[in-house]
TrEMBL record:
<dbReference type="Pfam" id="PF01521">
    <property type="entry name" value="Fe-S_biosyn"/>
</dbReference>
<dbReference type="InterPro" id="IPR035903">
    <property type="entry name" value="HesB-like_dom_sf"/>
</dbReference>
<dbReference type="InterPro" id="IPR031108">
    <property type="entry name" value="IscA_plant_cyanobact"/>
</dbReference>
<feature type="domain" description="Core">
    <location>
        <begin position="2"/>
        <end position="104"/>
    </location>
</feature>
<dbReference type="GO" id="GO:0016226">
    <property type="term" value="P:iron-sulfur cluster assembly"/>
</dbReference>
<dbReference type="InterPro" id="IPR016092">
    <property type="entry name" value="ATAP"/>
</dbReference>
<dbReference type="InterPro" id="IPR017870">
    <property type="entry name" value="FeS_cluster_insertion_CS"/>
</dbReference>
<dbReference type="InterPro" id="IPR000361">
    <property type="entry name" value="ATAP_core_dom"/>
</dbReference>
<protein>
    <submittedName>
        <fullName>Iron-sulfur cluster assembly protein</fullName>
    </submittedName>
</protein>
<dbReference type="GO" id="GO:0051537">
    <property type="term" value="F:2 iron, 2 sulfur cluster binding"/>
</dbReference>
C-alpha cells in the first residue's frame, strides 16, 4: 500500500480541480526503467482500469498500482514539497537500497 501525506493530498486535489478531473479519476503510480539509479517513479492521473491493477485509498486519495510496481512500492509514502530544496512530489520508499541525489530514481 502507498500512503499519502496531507501536503500530497492537498496538491493532488488542486491538480484535479484545475484539470477538471471528476471522481472517476485516480492517481496511477508506477515504477519504470530509467533514471540514474535504474528505476524511476511515474505518477499520473488516469480513469481506466487495467488488468492486474491494485487499488488503495489513503487520506481520501485513490491510488492505483500495477502488480509489478506494487512489489517495488509496498510501504511507500507519497509526499509533496514546495520548499527551497525543490518543488514536487516525493517518494519515501523503504524498499529502495539506493536513490539518486534528485530523488527521482532508485534501485533495490
Amino acid at each position: 500500500m502507498v500512503t499519502v501525506t496531507e501536503k500530497a493530498k492537498e496538491r493532488i486535489a488542486d491538480i484535479m480541480k484545475a484539470e477538471q478531473y471528476d471522481e472517476n479519476y485516480f492517481v496511477r503510480v508506477a515504477v519504470v526503467s530509467g533514471g540514474c539509479s535504474g528505476l524511476s517513479y511515474d505518477l499520473k492521473f488516469d480513469n481506466e482500469e487495467r488488468k492486474g491493477d491494485q487499488f488503495f485509498e489513503d487520506n481520501g486519495v485513490k491510488i492505483c498500482l500495477d502488480i509489478k510496481s506494487y512489489l517495488y512500492l509496498a510501504g511507500t509514502e507519497l509526499d509533496y514539497s514546495d520548499g527551497l530544496g525543490g518543488k514536487g512530489f516525493e517518494f519515501h520508499n523503504p524498499n529502495a537500497s539506493r536513490t539518486c541525489a534528485c530523488g527521482e530514481s532508485f534501485s533495490v
